[in-house]
Write a structure and sequence with these properties.
Length: 293
């Protein structure tokens, strides 16, 4: 099936994560199912923009918000770019499409005070589940890595002597992130237990049964512990990543440094995470620019 060839292309050529591949596949299949439900409709390859437009209208009529519609259309546009590149079609039917307008989402990161309060809740313990929970939150907050990067991190990626970790990010791009003393100490404590475990998995972090972590497990841990110190509606691993970037900027880090630590390919991506620090950036800019002296 052509959709499977498309997903293989994204996996092999683009290096997309399993989460992204699943989303793209579901979005393209969703459009295909819509076409099949319509009488006298074209197939995926022979479709025209008018039919895609009708699908968009149908999504909106069923309560799908503009941001989600844009994401689905983006996946579909990539699919037709793939068909075009493969000489299956001569023109992308979404070539003239313009994205729907969306309101900017303001994400409230956890405050520095909340993170200090959370750390104070971590008492000395020998319980594996507690230590694992502490190390999950500590690494996410002090390195800013993605949930998928945390789950896929291997034992060999940790350099205790060099005080850094190697992270394999999107599109298999490697980056190295320094570790704080507090993170190192917690890692050393965890590794004593981890290295005694009987398992064939190379992952750094494992469940008590010796299996790799999974997305819902990490999310549950973060939400459970952040609920103890924060009343914010959103409590996810991504908000810890957002807090990492925001707090670095609040303390004077430059945007390019944060960009490299987060593993972004452009500053535009980094600015999404650092919206709450823009006022501080403006202040630094006004003080530092030679024309303003």
């Amino acid at each position: 099936m052509i959709i499977n060839h498309f997903i293989t292309y994204l996996k092999v050529e683009k290096g997309y994560s399993p989460h992204t591949l699943k989303a793209y596949k579901n979005d393209v299949k969703g459009f295909h199912q819509y076409l099949e439900s319509m009488d006298n409709s074209s197939d995926l390859i022979a479709v025209n923009y008018h039919e895609i437009r009708n699908w968009i209208v149908d999504l909106l009529a069923n309560g799908v918000d503009n941001r989600s519609v844009n994401r689905k259309v983006s996946a579909l546009k990539s699919f037709y770019k793939f068909l075009q590149k493969s000489d299956i079609i001569s023109k992308n039917p979404l070539e003239i499409h313009r994205s729907l307008k969306t309101q900017k989402k303001i994400i409230l990161p956890f405050s520095q005070k909340e993170m200090v309060q959370l750390k104070e809740l971590f008492p000395p313990t020998e319980d594996y589940d507690d230590i694992l929970a502490y190390i999950i939150i500590e690494i996410l907050y002090t390195t800013g890595i993605r949930r998928s990067e945390l789950i896929n991190m291997k034992l060999i990626d940790v350099n205790i002597e060099g005080k850094q970790i190697k992270v394999l990010g999107k599109r298999n791009k490697e980056r190295f992130i320094p570790l704080l003393t507090s993170t190192l100490e917690l890692l050393k404590k965890y590794l004593v237990i981890r290295l005694e475990m009987t398992t064939h998995f190379p992952n750094l972090l494992l469940t008590k049964k010796g299996n790799p972590l999974y997305e819902s497990f990490v999310y549950k841990v973060v939400k459970q512990y952040m609920t103890l110190v924060s009343s914010k509606e959103r409590k996810s691993p991504h908000i810890l990543r957002h807090a990492f970037a925001t707090h670095l900027l609040d303390e004077g880090s430059d945007l390019n440094t944060v960009k490299e630590l987060l593993g972004h390919s452009s500053l535009a991506s980094t600015q999404v995470y650092t919206h709450s620090s823009l006022e501080r950036l403006k202040e630094v800019y006004r003080k530092a620019h030679p024309r303003n002296k």
